[in-house]
Write a structure and sequence with these properties.
By secondary structure, this protein is an alpha/beta fold. It is built from 13 helices and 21 strands. The structure holds NADP nicotinamide-adenine-dinucleotide phosphate. The site of NADP nicotinamide-adenine-dinucleotide phosphate (NAP) has 24 residues, from α4.
């Protein structure tokens, strides 16, 4: 092949959630025709398809939580509800002709690399050969069930928030919720509205900041439909505001951290009247160590007469309910596990093998890591979107995917020009990147004396420890010195 020819790669994308849809749109925009999206379920939307629990919403302002090129005048509230977000992704996917490219109900079981090509096999027995394989499976999609003795013996209904059983009646029931994270803070107020009694089993209290959930009127929407540029300005404004406050607070910038701490502490002080309850809800770690919860309903709800905040610790579960360490039985009809996710699974359990048959389990045995969060040495032409150390926190994950997509597109564009046939991150580049991250972690609040899903088994936060602007800047252009450029 002449090196100047523009060639058309075959690209397989795993997952038709927010990131998969975005990639398909952008790849098509650059003229790539052969794009296949493999989706394990019968619908698109990723996390917004999976999470249907009562109260599910995005605690990032809706006008920020959109693709930058597809503002949405229809949001009903400042914090969009889960079903609206799901509808938004379906609409965008249809409008940009992504939906016909999605192969539904086809889970990837294995993928292997050989001589510049990826062979991907699915649960339907299909095989796809591609030049690039991109994992867009998201981060928090493997529910973590607590390892509490007796959990299986519970005779009532029990389910995880991400596997909500809508057939279970809740009206007038005795409901238990284990967990007090971002999910729990949304679901608990809804349970307290309908349940006879709601027992909230809190292991660790959380810092909560209150941001009013403005309702958008028909008038507002009419205006925005006519003038979408207003929404683009909102997008920019919220992005700026969240970076200056939440994002800078967690990486140790003094003033933003003081501000966030003040807002959380004031919220607790002014919202919770009873000093005993307030004490139970007061964390003993720095604001931001666990992801700051943005919520305006939890504190009101937990003070209702039918709410019980249980802090004694769970001893075991019996067929009738939860027994706490003080020996008390909390009788329940329904037990809800708001216990989070396994964040380090990424695209697994699929069987992924790179060059010379090396498996992802072998490469990640010591540590789950990726160069620039995207590339894993020995896995040429494989991209892990939203990989470890993507700057998650309280920022919009859509903005992160957009930055990473541009980076990946530049690499694919150079492949098209014939600059290489395969690209593989160098091991030493990954180690340099890891050391650079480690250096930044010391100043962050994630090591502020708490346990959180941000921490890997070594206790290292799988986060970006510098500013958002720095990340955007460093992600502008791939540094090819950090890669092996292979001609096959
Ligand atoms: P999470 O933050 O990991 O919280 C899990 C909760 O379950 C914690 O309170 C934890 O207690 C508790 N827990 C876990 N195992 C337990 C056990 N064996 N016994 C007692 N308690 C146990 O999970 P999440 O609330 O689902 O949120 C995860 C992430 O999803 C968030 O941080 C956020 O990034 C994302 N999310 C976002 C939104 C949004 O609106 N954008 C909404 C929901 C979730 P400890 O604190 O003691 O570990």
């Amino acid at each position: 092949m002449t090196k100047q020819t523009i060639r058309d790669p075959k690209v397989v994308i795993i997952g038709a959630g927010m990131t998969g849809i975005l990639l398909a749109i952008e790849l098509e925009r650059m003229g790539i025709k052969d794009i296949t999206l493999l989706e394990k379920k019968n619908d698109l939307g990723g996390t917004w398809r999976e999470n249907t629990y009562p109260g599910v919403a995005c605690d990032i302002p809706a006008h920020m939580y959109t693709y930058s090129f597809a503002p949405n005048p229809e949001w009903s509230h400042r914090f969009a509800h889960g079903n609206e977000i799901h509808t938004y992704f379906k609409r965008v996917s249809d409008e940009y002709r992504v939906t016909p490219k999605i192969h539904f109900n086809e889970a990837v079981t294995e993928a292997s690399y050989q001589n510049g090509k990826w062979t991907t096999k699915t649960s339907k027995g299909e095989t796809y050969i591609s030049d690039f394989l991109i994992s867009a499976t998201g981060i928090l999609h493997h529910p973590a069930k607590p390892n509490i003795p007796g959990l299986d013996s519970f005779k009532g209904k029990c389910f995880h928030t991400a596997e909500w059983d809508h057939s279970v009646p809740l009206e007038g029931k005795r409901i238990g919720v284990i967990g007090t994270g971002s999910t729990a803070a949304q679901v608990i107020p809804e349970m307290i509205k309908v349940g006879k009694k709601v027992s909230v089993f809190q292991r660790t209290p959380q810092w909560i900041v209150k941001v009013p959930d403005t309702v958008y009127t028909e008038e507002d929407k009419k205006k925005w439909r006519k003038e979408p540029n207003i929404l683009k300005r909102f997008h920019k404004w919220y992005t700026f505001a969240v970076e200056q406050t939440f994002s800078k607070a967690v990486i140790g910038k003094k003033i933003p951290h003081l501000l966030m701490s003040f807002l959380c502490k004031r919220n607790l002080r002014t919202s919770i009247k009873d000093p005993v309850l307030r004490q139970k809800l007061t964390p003993n770690y720095r604001v931001g160590c666990k992801r700051v919860i943005v919520n305006s309903t939890f504190y009101d709800a937990i003070q209702k007469p039918n709410a019980d905040l249980v802090t004694e610790g769970i001893e075991r579960i019996t067929e009738n309910g939860v027994i706490t360490k003080d020996g008390k039985l909390h009788e329940l009809d329904v037990l809800i596990l708001a216990t989070g996710f396994h964040p380090f699974n990424f695209m697994r359990p699929m069987n992924l093998t790179g060059e010379n048959g090396i498996s992802i389990e072998t490469v990640w045995k010591k540590k789950v890591q990726a160069y620039r969060s995207l590339f894993i040495p020995h896995f040429p032409n494989f991209v892990l979107m939203l990989g470890p150390n993507t700057p998650i926190g309280n920022f919009s994950v859509i903005a992160m995917s957009e930055v990473q997509t541009k980076y990946v597109l530049k690499i694919i564009e150079d492949w098209r020009k014939g600059k290489f046939d395969a690209i593989d991150a160098k091991e030493e580049a990954l180690q340099r990147f890891a050391a650079y991250l480690k250096k930044g972690m010391a100043g962050t609040v994630w090591l502020g004396g708490c346990q959180s899903w941000y921490l890997d088994p070594d206790g290292d936060p799988a986060m970006w420890p510098y500013t958002w602007s720095r990340w955007e800047k460093e992600m502008k252009t791939p540094d090819y010195q950090d890669f092996h450029l292979i001609t096959t």
